[in-house]
Amino acid sequence: MLIHSDLNTDLNDRLYNNMENENLYDKIKDYLGNSPDRFHIMENQIDIEVQMEYFEYSKRLKSQLETEKIINEKDNIFINELDEEYKKELLVKLACIDDVKAFRTIEKYLLNPNENLKNWASLALQESKMLLESKLLDENQVFISTGLGGKNGKLRYFIVILSKGNANLSETQKKIIKNEFDYILKKSDSEIEKLDFSDSLTTIVAIIPISVTLKDLFNAAIDECNQYGNFLKKSFIVTNVKILSMDEIINILKDQNHDD
Hints:
The chain is of the alpha+beta class and about 260 residues long. The protein has two domains: about 1-15 and about 25-145, no CATH class; about 150-255, 2-Layer Sandwich (Alpha-Beta Plaits). It has helices at about 25-30, 50-60, 65-75, 85-95, 100-110, 120-135, 170-185, 215-225, 245-255; strands at about 1-5, 40, 140-145, 150, 155-165, 190-200, 200-210, 230-240. Strands 4, 5, 6, 7 and 8 form a five-stranded antiparallel sheet that branches. A hairpin with a 2-residue loop joins strand 4 (about 150) and strand 5 (about 155-165). Helix 7 (about 170-185) packs antiparallel against helix 8 (about 215-225).
């Protein structure tokens, strides 16, 4: 997860299994000085490496901004023949100045962007919007972005649930998992977007409010399932960085002890 503010503070945090009793919402409230209404969640799914590159780029360019020069150059962003690297720099510069014309330029560019710069421009638009809101509201705004993005002020997560003894799940067990996880997540105002089974593994993509403690949520769902045969491990994998491939899941399992 990246937390980016107009105070130039970044936090990169990968959330996997064996999470302690920490509430992400509490951590963000601490970060924001107990003012949680000031955050914005990036909804787009953008590779975390692209995000890190963008914010490093932004941080570096903030010290060398010439507002009038940038505004005079803003329409260059629409010239197809210009180098992509130049456009990357111009997008970041436009995002770093609190001028409505800069915001509108990025917004217009996103209607028909260079394909390679679409995600870059999306990040620029979000940063520009945040900067203008900070100026309008006279308080710092914070931009929370993850590789998996979010929806309606919630974060998207990829979760892997494991069966005990690596036993293949029966059709009945699959039905139990689907029903119980759907029930528990809905109680927490969460939403399952996708649920798949592969032998002993269950993978879930879900939208979850940042105020929900992930460990408590999934422990509760696993406990509900285990009332019908005690067939799931208590440990699980969860990340908001990316959708993990099967090879990546297997490598994580090799590195971790998942015996209950």
